[in-house]
Specification:
The chain is mostly helical. It has one domain. It contains 1 helix and no strands. The longest helix is centred in the middle third of the chain and has 7 residues.
Length: 42
Protein backbone atom coordinates (compact mmCIF):
# COMPACT_ATOMS: atom_id res chain seq x y z
CA UNK A 1 0.00 0.00 0.00
CA UNK A 2 1.66 3.26 -1.13
CA UNK A 3 -0.44 5.42 1.21
CA UNK A 4 0.69 6.70 4.58
CA UNK A 5 -0.89 5.06 7.62
CA UNK A 6 -4.10 6.89 8.65
CA UNK A 7 -2.57 8.40 11.80
CA UNK A 8 -0.04 10.27 9.61
CA UNK A 9 -2.43 11.56 6.96
CA UNK A 10 -3.60 15.15 6.78
CA UNK A 11 -6.81 16.53 5.36
CA UNK A 12 -5.06 18.99 3.07
CA UNK A 13 -8.16 20.70 1.67
CA UNK A 14 -9.09 21.97 5.14
CA UNK A 15 -6.09 24.30 4.90
CA UNK A 16 -7.14 25.93 1.60
CA UNK A 17 -9.29 29.08 1.56
CA UNK A 18 -10.67 28.01 -1.83
CA UNK A 19 -12.16 24.89 -0.24
CA UNK A 20 -14.25 26.98 2.15
CA UNK A 21 -15.43 29.28 -0.63
CA UNK A 22 -16.25 26.46 -3.07
CA UNK A 23 -18.25 24.38 -0.60
CA UNK A 24 -19.61 27.13 1.67
CA UNK A 25 -18.00 25.53 4.73
CA UNK A 26 -18.61 27.66 7.81
CA UNK A 27 -17.81 27.51 11.50
CA UNK A 28 -19.77 24.67 13.07
CA UNK A 29 -19.48 22.41 10.01
CA UNK A 30 -17.58 19.15 10.44
CA UNK A 31 -14.88 20.16 7.95
CA UNK A 32 -14.33 23.63 9.50
CA UNK A 33 -10.82 24.44 10.68
CA UNK A 34 -10.31 27.81 12.35
CA UNK A 35 -8.11 30.14 10.26
CA UNK A 36 -5.57 30.37 13.10
CA UNK A 37 -5.14 26.57 12.92
CA UNK A 38 -4.73 26.30 9.15
CA UNK A 39 -1.29 25.62 7.71
CA UNK A 40 0.16 28.23 5.36
CA UNK A 41 3.50 27.38 3.80
CA UNK A 42 3.77 30.07 1.13
Amino acid sequence: DPHSPPEFRANVVRNLEEFYAAYDVVEGDGMWLAPANRVRIW
